[in-house]
C-alpha cells in the first residue's frame, strides 16, 4: 500500500491536512533544499504536525525515488540558474510591508456567519415580511414560492430525494447549516444588486425560505436569538472526504493484457445530441459560407439600424411630455426589475439588457446582450418597443413571447406597467 | 478567396467532411501526388511570396491568426441559467504541449468577471493573526516571489458524464482545465508577515479566502495546505492575469479543485473552523448513492484524456502513421505513467511522456503508432507518484453512484470509426 494511504488512514477529519504537510516537506526538498531544512527546524507552524517522512513506516520509497529523479532532472536543466528562495522567517512583520487594518475596515469586509451563529448581526424578520421582500427581490429568478424558475436555483422542496435518481438539492433538503443561507443572501444576493438588503430583510427572506420548506410555521420570527433553534433536516447528511479508504483499491498495479473478455459500446453521445454546435458551424456556414465577421457586416445589418433610428425618433419626441409623477411611481415599481436590469449613467447588461432608451427602440438590439433567438428575430423583422408592446410584454412576458429569456412573471396591475414604462422613458 | 476556403474547411462539418474523403484519398499516398502533376502551391508564384505582409505595429498585442479562430472557449448554454454565473471550456482538442494560453483558458464566474484596477486593489489579512494587515498591489510586488506551473481543474469537469456519454468533444467533457506558469507570493509569507502566534496551535486552524466580486466565492482551506504550497498570484504565463481569471490577484491552490482558487482575492482570514460557505456546502459537495454527501473533497484525483483523435479532432488522413496524444494530471503530485488502449480497455500500451511528470501540473503524452484504418475504442489511463491509477467509470459508480456531479476522473472512451470520425461513447 502506498505512502499516502497510510498517511490518510490515521488522519480522519484532518485527512488532507496531514497529506499537505507531508508534501510540503517533500516538495520543498525538490525545489528549495535549503529552505526545507529551515522550515522543519525553525518554523513551528509547519513542524507542529509535520510527520518526518523517514518515520512513516515503509512508505516513502517510491515517492522519494520520484522526487529524487525530478531533483536530478531539474538540477540538470537549471545549472546556471539559481532557484533558491530567501529564507522565510516566522517573525511577524519581517518585511514591514502593508499597514494595520482598521477595525472599521475589517468590519466592512468580514461578513462571515459561522455555523454556530457567531458573527450574526442583531436583527429579525418574520415569514410574512419575508414573503413580500422575497416577491420583490428574489421571485423573478427563484419563483414566488422559492420553487425556482428556468435554470435558476430551486430553494424549496426536495426533502427525501437525495438518494433518488435526480435529487433536488435545496436549502430545506440539502443545506446543512442555516448560517450559510443567511451569509450568502447577505453578501451576494440579489443577483446583480448584492449587499442592497438590510439585515432585517435578510432575516425575513431567510425566514420565508424556511417557511417555503415547511421548516417553520407562518408565525415564525427569525432573529439572531432564534437562529440556532432552527433544525436543518440534512445537517447530519455529510461525511468528510473518505476517498483514501473507500477507494483504496484505486491504488493498484494496472492490468495491461487480457483485461476484459469482450467490449461493447453501451452508450453514445450522439443519441442524446446535446452538444452545442460550434459557433460558425451553423446551417449557413458550409454551403453559403461567409465567415462570421463577414456575416456581422452583411448588408442587411445596416438597414435594421437605420430603421431603429427612424422608429426611435417619434418616441423621443413623445418623451418630451413625460408624466414625471407617473415616472416617479414607476421608479418604485422598477425595483422589481433592478435585480436583472440597469438604467441610467453607466448602465450595463446584467441578467437582462440595460434599458436606457428601450422605449421606442428596435427590439433585441442592445449591444452585447445575448437575446433569445425569438426576441432577436422580432428586432430583425424591424419591430420596435412601442408602449403598447411593452405593456403587453410586461403583463405576461411568456404570453407575449413564449421563449423569452426573461423569467420575470409579469406586472399584474396595468398602473404599475404604465408607471414603469413612463419611468423608462426618462432614460432616452 | 483562398482565405475563405481555408476558413470554411476549419468548421467542424468541413473538417468531418474532409476527414471522410481524406481517408480514401490518403490510401493512395505520396505516389498519388506525383500522378496528379506538380503542386501549384509550389510551381505558381503566391501572393505571400511576392507582396508584403503586415508591419510591426499591425497588432500591438497579437491574437492568433484568423485561420485558428475556431480554437476558442465555448460554453454549453443549457448548463446554467445565465452566462454571468456559468462556465466555458478550454479547446484542449486543438492545443498541444502543456501550457494553456490565457486567452482560451476556461472561465468560471459566479457573479461575472469584474474589472478591478491595481490602484483600487486591497488585500486584507484578518482573524487570528497578530496584526490584521492591508496590502496594496504595490506592496505585494515587494515580497519575494516564485514561479510555479500548476493545473487548475474545476471540480465539475466531466461532471455531465456521470450518467452516460453526453457531450461530444474533449473540450466539453474535459475542458474545465488549464495549466499556467504562475508568478506569486507563497501565502505562507503573507500569513507570517501578519503573524500567526495569535492563532495558537495551528493544527486545527483554517484560512478563509474570499474574492472582491459580488459572489465573494468564499472557501475554507486547512492551515496546513495554506502554509504548504498555496500562492497569491498576480502573473500567469509571464503576463498579468486576465480579467476573467481574477486580475489583478488570484489564489492558486495546487492540486485542489478550481473553486478554491479564489479570483479577485480580497481577504484572507485565519479562523477556528471552516466557515461552511455556500460553495463548500450546497455546492462542491459530492452526493453518494445512499443520499449522504462527501464534503471537503478538495484533491483532484489523477485523470487523463486523449485530446486527439477525438470528436472535434478527427483523423484527417488514412491509415498509417498516427499520433495519439492527450493530457494527464494529478492533484496528489506528478504523473508517472500513462497507458493507452485502442480496444476499449482489453489491452494497454504505455505512452511516451513529452516531459517527465511535474508536480500538480499537466503532463502531455504521445503514442506514436500506426493506424490500420479500423475502428478503435481509444482510452487513456493515468498513474501518479502515489501509485493511484485512474479508474473506469464503472469503478467510480460502484463507490459513488451517479449523483456526485463533481470529481469525475473516469477513463474516457472515444470511438474512432474507419472514416476517422470520433464519438464519445461508454463501453462495457
TrEMBL record, chain A:
Keywords: Electron transport, Heme, Iron, Metal-binding, Signal, Transport
Biased composition (Low complexity): 290-316
Record domain Cytochrome c: where: 125-213, 325-428
Signal peptide: 1-24
Pfam families given in the database record: Cytochrom_C
Record region (Disordered): 273-316
PROSITE patterns: CYTC (PS51007)
GO terms for MF: electron transfer activity; heme binding; metal ion binding
Record InterPro entries: Cyt_c-like_dom, Cyt_c-like_dom_sf, Cyt_c_1A/1B
Extent of Acidic residues compositional bias: 275-284
Protein name: Sulfur dehydrogenase subunit SoxD
UniProtKB/TrEMBL annotation, chain B:
Annotated GO biological process: sulfur compound metabolic process
GO molecular function: heme binding; molybdenum ion binding; molybdopterin cofactor binding; sulfite oxidase activity
Gene3D superfamilies membership: 2.60.40.650, Oxidoreductase, molybdopterin-binding domain (3.90.420.10)
Annotated InterPro entries: Ig_E-set, MoCF_OxRdtse_dimer, Mopterin_OxRdtase_euk, OxRdtase_Mopterin-bd_dom, OxRdtase_Mopterin-bd_sf, Sulfite_DH_SoxC, TAT_signal
Keyword vocabulary terms for this entry: Metal-binding, Molybdenum, Oxidoreductase
Ranges where the Oxidoreductase molybdopterin-binding domain occurs: 115-275
Coiled-coil features, chain-numbered ranges: none
Cofactor: Mo-molybdopterin
Domain Moybdenum cofactor oxidoreductase dimerisation: 294-413
Pfam family, one: Mo-co_dimer
PROSITE patterns, alphabetized: TAT (PS51318)
NCBIfam families linked: sulfite_DH_soxC
Name of the protein described by the UniProt record: Sulfur dehydrogenase subunit SoxC
Organism of this sequence: Pseudooceanicola nitratireducens
